């Protein structure tokens, strides 16, 4: 039986006593899945995952996705290498976001393995979007509940977008980079039935039916509110650890505070459904 120890008051838990590279029993997979739904972010220290083993672990939770704008590993297209070299000026994931919300069916979760981490810094922050929604006034909730937000990959992945500036990441322009995808601004988690704010600064570009200036004012309030400290936890990585998070209920932010050092992670993502 694995142990599960909460990381903060609102989300995140450390899970010990599991070897993710071994063949996992159905009971253990169910235990991990239940802890994932309860805590939204799980951290597994002391792991040793080859790309094959990471793919095998991810497939317990659904079909794996391939990133439309980032090259996967040659032998493992579902695995992307997230690398910041010592002299890089930007990092991948360096801003609050939920993964690939510019897709019609964004990934339900992401699994990140720390191959090599800097001697300091490089933490990942997470913010619980159920807690962010719950903390709003009833009047604000009523206003937001019926709204539809517009998402696009353009700000990050079109020519000159933030994610293309990293010299170490292999981004690729592809069809659909400027497509606008619409999702409910407040989504209901398909498994727990809880409501969550579903906008993020990286990919949310407007609100249907609102003028640009109206939408920007409301979104700016939500971007700041959604990631306030009481809704957050952080992972201080060690090499050979794994985190798994629920993109339907959290945003995350890869800090870039380790200039002069290298950071190397590998990520797989599990396909999700259409937000409702
Ligand atoms: C990401 O998936 O956005 C990257 C997270 C990280 O490198 O910490």
Structure explained in plain terms:
By secondary structure, the chain is α+β, with helices and mostly antiparallel strands. The protein has a single domain (3-270), classed as Double-stranded beta-helix, CATH 3.60.130. 20% of the residues lie in helices and 25% in strands. It contains six helices and 15 strands. The protein has helices at 26-39, 51-58, 129-134, 138-145, 154-157, 212-226; strands spanning 3-6, 13-16, 41-44, 80-84, 109-116, 124-128, 148-151, 181-184, 186-188, 195-197, 204-207, 232-235, 242-246, 250-254, 263-270. Strands 1-2-3-13-5-15-4 form a seven-stranded mixed β-sheet, with helices on one face. Strand 9 (186-188) and strand 10 (195-197) form a beta hairpin. The longest helix has 15 residues, at 212-226. The radius of gyration is 18 Å and the shape is globular. It starts with a strand and ends in a 6-residue tail after the last strand. Bound molecules: succinic acid (SIN). Succinic acid binds next to strand 5, strand 14 and strand 15.
Query: How many structural domains?
Result: 1
Counting DSSP E segments of at least 2 residues, the number of strands comes to: 15
Strand order of the largest sheet: 1-2-3-13-5-15-4
Order of helices and strands: EEHEHEEEHHEHEEEEHEEEE
CATH architecture: 4-Layer Sandwich
Q: Structural class, please?
A: alpha+beta
Distance N to C terminus: 35 Å
CATH topology: Double-stranded beta-helix
Name of the top-level CATH class:
Alpha Beta
**Count of alpha/pi helices:** 6
What characteristic shape results from the CA principal axes? globular
The helix content is 10-25%
**Unreliable residue stretches:** none
CATH H-level homologous superfamily name: Clavaminate synthase-like
Ligands, ions, cofactors: succinic acid
Major beta-sheet overview: 7 strands, mixed
């Amino acid at each position: 039986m694995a142990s599960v120890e909460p990381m903060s008051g609102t989300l995140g838990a450390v899970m010990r006593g599991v070897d993710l590279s071994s063949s996992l029993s159905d009971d253990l997979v169910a235990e991990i899945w239940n802890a994932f739904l309860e805590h939204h972010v799980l951290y597994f220290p002391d792991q040793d995952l080859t790309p094959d083993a990471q793919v095998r672990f991810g497939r317990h939770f659904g079909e794996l996705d391939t990133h439309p704008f980032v090259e996967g590993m040659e032998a493992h297209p579902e695995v992307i290498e997230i690398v910041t070299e010592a002299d890089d000026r930007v990092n991948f994931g360096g801003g609050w976001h939920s993964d690939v919300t510019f897709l019609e069916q964004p990934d339900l979760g992401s699994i990140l393995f720390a191959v090599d981490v800097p001697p300091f810094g490089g933490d990942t922050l997470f913010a619980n979007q159920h807690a962010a929604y719950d903390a709003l006034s009833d009047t604000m909730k009523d206003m937001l509940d019926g709204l539809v937000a517009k998402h696009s990959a353009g700000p990050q992945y079109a020519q000159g977008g933030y994610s293309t500036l990293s010299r170490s990441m292999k981004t690729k322009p592809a069809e659909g980079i400027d497509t606008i995808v619409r999702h409910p601004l407040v989504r209901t988690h398909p498994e727990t039935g809880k409501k969550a704010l579903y906008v993020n600064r990286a990919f949310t570009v407007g609100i249907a039916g609102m003028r640009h200036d109206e939408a920007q004012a409301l979104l700016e309030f939500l971007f700041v509110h959604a990631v306030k400290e009481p809704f957050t936890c952080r992972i201080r990585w060690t090499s050979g650890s794994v985190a798994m998070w629920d993109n339907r209920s959290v945003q995350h932010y890869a800090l870039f505070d380790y200039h002069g050092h290298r950071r190397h992670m590998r990520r797989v993502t599990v396909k999700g459904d259409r937000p409702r």
